[in-house]
């Protein structure tokens, strides 16, 4: 991990320039422009990352709309009761994946780039490209995977969903063993289809965050990663955290909406906090990790808020940690 360069500074003159370039991505990810260019510079040339900051009455209208949605409570909270919803959702991706002749684009989760407005550096912005967030997510994953996963022989993604991340990991590390784990059988089937149909080292296996299977073996020199999946377990993270502590992977990465990283004195953040709580997204986990670190049980190597998200919240902050032997 000695080659990883992370910074925590923000260039306030550059954050809202109207374009996500290497310098802006470096601020988003807490790294350097050179690191961005070396890990995913080609992707910055491929996509249109221009945007316009929304101001005045239009911004007020968005805030009002968000407040009305929050007051309506017309959405489902995460938790155990949503297992069937995710089963059906990933089944749609599986059906499209098969019908397309195993086109990897069919694996894109349908909740990404769902809105015409994004949030960026605690402001609302209107992207030039309707796939702004999806394209951003591609850059984000290439940076995250290349920066942190390269040294390990095996990768375990818990809550692998549509398999979208598994495919990117395989493209970057074709010789690594990659395990996709999820409670939805349709998700497991996608992972196994990636392995058999595309002849990769990807494997699928059932796993329930709420009832971890201790028979699952985590091989030596392995990394564990979650991406926008622990958000669905709300405050019920302890069973999974105990499982990870028992299995002792070499590295753990959690790329999730992190409630504790918002600023409740900022209006845009305050709306995200209310949304996060109403949806029962992940809460208390970051504080639990910090307590474990204070007790000398783990070491948090990096924790970084990524100030980009959709209409309602940010979903891409990350915590990288490992246990202390």
Sheet with most strands: 7 strands, mixed
Low-confidence stretches: 1-10
Structural class: alpha/beta
Task: Report the total helices.
Answer: 10
Shape, per Cα inertia axes: globular
Give the N-terminus to C-terminus distance in angstroms.
17 Å
Which superfamily, in CATH terms, is the homologous superfamily?
Vaccinia Virus protein VP39
Strand content: 15-25%
Q: Calculate the mean pLDDT score and round it.
A: 93
* Beta strand count: 11
Total discrete domains: 1
The top level CATH class name: Alpha Beta
Give, in spatial order, the strands making up the sheet with the most strands. 6-5-4-7-8-11-9
What is the annotated CATH architecture? 3-Layer(aba) Sandwich
Name its key features.
325 residues; disordered N terminus; alpha/beta; 4-stranded antiparallel β-sheet; 7-stranded mixed β-sheet; Rossmann fold; single chain
Walk me through the topology.
Blueprint: H1 22-29, H2 33-46, E1 51-53, H3 56-72, H4 83-99, E2 118-120, E3 123-127, H5 132-148, E4 154-158, H6 164-172, E5 177-182, H7 185-197, E6 202-206, E7 222-227, H8 238-247, E8 251-256, H9 267-278, H10 285-294, E9 298-304, E10 308-309, E11 317-323
Parallel strand pairs: 4-5, 4-7, 5-6, 7-8
Antiparallel strand pairs: 1-3, 2-3, 2-10, 8-11, 9-11
Helix pairs in contact: 1-2, 2-5, 3-9, 4-7, 5-6
């Amino acid at each position: 991990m000695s080659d990883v360069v992370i910074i925590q500074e923000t260039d306030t003159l550059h954050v809202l320039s109207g374009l996500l370039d290497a310098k802006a991505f470096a601020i988003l990810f807490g790294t350097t422009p050179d690191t961005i260019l070396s890990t995913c510079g080609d992707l910055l040339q491929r996509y249109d990352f221009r945007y316009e900051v929304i101001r005045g009455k239009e911004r007020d209208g968005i805030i009002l709309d968000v407040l009305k949605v929050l007051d309506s409570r017309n959405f489902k909270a995460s938790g155990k009761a949503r297992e069937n919803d995710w089963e059906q959702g990933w089944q749609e991706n599986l059906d499209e994946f098969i019908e397309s002749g195993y086109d990897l684009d069919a694996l894109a989760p349908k909740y990404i780039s769902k809105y015409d407005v994004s949030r960026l550096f605690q402001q609302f912005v209107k992207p030039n490209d309707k796939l702004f967030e999806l394209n951003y997510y591609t850059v984000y994953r290439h940076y995250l995977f290349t920066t942190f996963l390269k040294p390990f022989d095996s990768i375990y993604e818990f809550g692998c969903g549509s398999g979208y991340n598994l495919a990117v990991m395989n493209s970057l590390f074709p010789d690594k063993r990659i395990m996709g784990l999820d409670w939805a059988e349709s998700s497991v089937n996608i992972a196994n289809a990636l392995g058999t149909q595309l002849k990769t080292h990807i494997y699928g296996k059932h796993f329930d965050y709420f009832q971890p299977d201790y028979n699952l073996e985590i091989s030596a020199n392995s990394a564990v990663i979650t991406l926008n999946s622990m958000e669905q377990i709300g405050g019920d993270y302890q069973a999974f955290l105990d499982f990870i502590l028992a299995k002792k992977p070499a590295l753990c990465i959690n790329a999730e909406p992190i409630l504790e990283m918002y600023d409740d004195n900022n209006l845009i953040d305050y709306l995200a906090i209310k949304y996060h709580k109403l949806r029962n997204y992940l809460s208390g986990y970051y504080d639990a990790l910090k307590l474990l670190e204070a007790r000398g049980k783990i070491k948090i190597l990096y924790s970084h808020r990524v100030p980009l998200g959709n209409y309602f919240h940010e979903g891409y902050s990350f915590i990288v940690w490992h246990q202390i032997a």
